[in-house]
Amino acid sequence: MSALSMTSEKKKIAFAVQRYGKEVSGGAEFQCRELAKHLSDLYDVEILTSCALNIYPWDNYYEEGVENLEGICVRRFKVKKKQDMAVLSSLYHDMIMDKLEYPNQYFEECGPYCPELVDYIKEHYKEYQAVIFYTYGMYTSALGLQSGLDNGIFIPTLHEDVSIRSLSYKKIFEATKAFVFNTYEEQDILHRVYDNLNKKEMVTCMGMDDIDYGKLDLEVTKPYGDYIIYAGRMTESKKCEQLFEYFIRYKKDNPSGLKLLLLGTLDNIKIPEHSDIIYLGYVSQEEKLAFIRGAKFLVNNSASESLSIVLLESMLLGRPVLVNANCDVMRGQCRRSNAGLYYDNYLEFEAMTNYLLSHPKEYETMAQNGVEFVRKNYIWSEVVRNFSNLIETFRD
Amino acid sequence: MNIDVKQIVEEIKSEIKDRIKENSELSGTETESERFVSAYHSNMIRRMSKAEDIVLFGSGRYGELLYKEFLKDNISTIRCFCDNNERIVGKQVDGLRVLKPEEALMEYPGALFVITVINCPVEITAQLLKMNVDVENILFYNFVRGGF
Asked: In chain A, at which residue ranges do the beta strands (DSSP E only) sit?
């Protein structure tokens, strides 16, 4: 069945996103695909996007027109202009100074410049229950949200950035009818700059599938005895080397059979040779979940995680977490869930580790809290239900 | 059983307070746990630690407080304050000179300008850009986000 011939009784919604496709890498784009896929059970989902695969400068990799991708109708519009980084940089200066010739001048250069996509939204937004825009700093979201529609939802994936104080962004935020944030910490970024927008808001738009940990094969974990685990890319920016130092010092000060298991890829860092630090490299998702379930707890020393999926997986698997207190998001998740502890130096790392290993009742409560927290907030069925409630506020 | 991890963390920290102090005295530096260091602050420090010269824009209350915090983080390349307030220019704050922004730029042309004032960061950013400071060399430290 072609996308054009698809008919359905479901209400229509649209996502407007800078790029869309199986080949597209990028966190926001991946999240958009996942959310679109899960909302397609309830809605007739359409994607409004560019023909680009690559950014800076935007290309026209995909064919213009309509295609059906994984059961979802994707409408692609040509990128009409390549980006000029020198011009963009100069316009960024002007945007911060509120000296652009007109507020959207920066976004037109930023791209992907698809005026026909914006025209399409202007002409067709009434056909959709809601139009959901992804990512701040994109032509598609900036111009789309200001195209006069009354049902625009914005998932901005904001970062701390002085430009969001500019008139250019102010106009976008004012035109937005509802915001959806990945985390409460992201929501805070907007609230600290604009405390009186008075828009509909929701936090959490990324979900995960529930895990039946009874079905996991824990045999693979048995050779390692008692262990704590780190899972993810290992890089300097995630402060993995400091984690190794802490663990080695911990083992020196607290002799036991406890090990540190490391799952994931190495990115320019070296794992110290130590009999209790075991690097298993990349493993399948199923094995990863089994190893986390077999652990005492999951540890993450990064100070700058956004939404950490592996943290949520660990909670869902009934394994508490121990995280760097300097990471606002992970510390916030521990406090909201009551399913993990946090530290900001070695002595606290040692004390928190010993607490988790020696307080079985509190440990078990944290484990249960984690499962409940993720099931309540991050399981796809819940995310879809909450998102759908927001979408349904737009039209009768 | 109900638990509050915030309370648990505070109790554990309180139990090891003396060890942390002892550790701090041995190493001669204040440990991170004696003050709250937010991820925001850590990120800013990472960015600042790469700069050869740093100028703090704003020598008022926030500028002074942040200067002290940055020193605790071993940021040793802060060269001066700069300020638009003519009455402060030419004086010293915490032993650091206060220059006019133009003077600071002339003396440290490649410096990272860290804006410490909270009321008008956009205007100050605009002022620095007008002086031809590269946008990459302008950092707004939002005191509220710092967590102090």
From this structure: 12-17, 44-50, 65-69, 72-77, 130-134, 152-155, 178-181, 200-203, 227-231, 234-235, 259-263, 266-267, 277-281, 298-300, 321-324, 340-343
Quick one: CA torsion of A384, A387, A388, A389, rounded to 10 degrees? Answer: 130
- Per-residue pLDDT at B107 exceeds 70: yes
Please count the residues of chain B.
148
Residue A236 structure tokens = 């300097």
A340: β partners: A321
CA distance A193 to chain B (A): 11
**pTM (2 d.p.):** 0.73
Q: Do B108 and B62 share a structural domain? A: yes
pLDDT band at B37; cut points 50, 70, 90: low
The CA distance from A136 to the nearest CA of chain B, in Å, is 19
Query: Least CB-CB distance to A342: which of B9, B20, B138?
Result: B9
pLDDT at residue A96 is higher than 90:
no
Which residues of chain B have a CB within 8 Å of the CB of A369?
A: 3
For chain B, what is the domain count?
2
- Interval A79-108 mean pLDDT: 88
Annotated domain spans of chain A = 12-207+380-391, 213-377
Cα(A314)–Cα(A181) distance, integer angstroms: 22
pLDDT of residue A381: 94
pLDDT tens-digit readout, A200-215: 999 988 999 998 888 8
ipTM: 0.80
Between 3.40.50.2300, 3.40.50.410, 3.40.50.2000, 3.40.190.10, what CATH number should domain A12-207+380-391 receive? 3.40.50.2000
Give DSSP secondary structure letters for A314-325.
HHHTT--EEEET
Domain at A213-377, CATH homologous superfamily:
Glycogen Phosphorylase B; (3.40.50.2000)
Average pLDDT score over residue span B110-139: 88
User: Residue B9 sits in which domain range?
Assistant: 1-33
Q: What is the Cα gyration radius of chain B?
A: 18
